[in-house]
Amino acid sequence: MNTSLLMxxxxxxxxxIAALATACAGASASRASACHAxxxxxxxxxxxxxxxxxxxxxxxxxxxxxxxxxxxxxxxxYRFVELDVEEDERARFVLSQLNPRGSVPMFAIEGRVxxxxxxxxxxxxxxxxxxxxxxxxPPVGEGLSLR
Length: 147
Hints:
Order of helices and strands: EHHHEHEHEEH
Strand order of the largest sheet: 1-5-4-2-3
Number of strands: 5
CATH architecture: 3-Layer(aba) Sandwich
Distance between the termini: 51 Å
């Protein structure tokens, strides 16, 4: 069963900062082959932006669903890094904090967690991230009244 768990950024940020910071840019040599840059798509700018959102996939080598997810990400030209929870102690800790059941794959996408592999859910989360990036941000302090 695929489940999506959305948690506030302030909860996720301390746990995911290392994984998302290394997604593609600065990935270790052992992970470099797992890191893929976005490719052109027929839908132009929006699809390019969607495929350029960094994704951290928490996985194991033996998991067939993880293999299917990797194939989908590679074929779609998504930008991602794989974090093997059996080989990487930090990845195992993050997985245990965000997904106590410990099931894989788990995806971390800019403050959002998706547990299980559901291509439609992943694409929807990526679309939401791109939309939020494009949304105008109110000036700091706007709407606040000091007494």
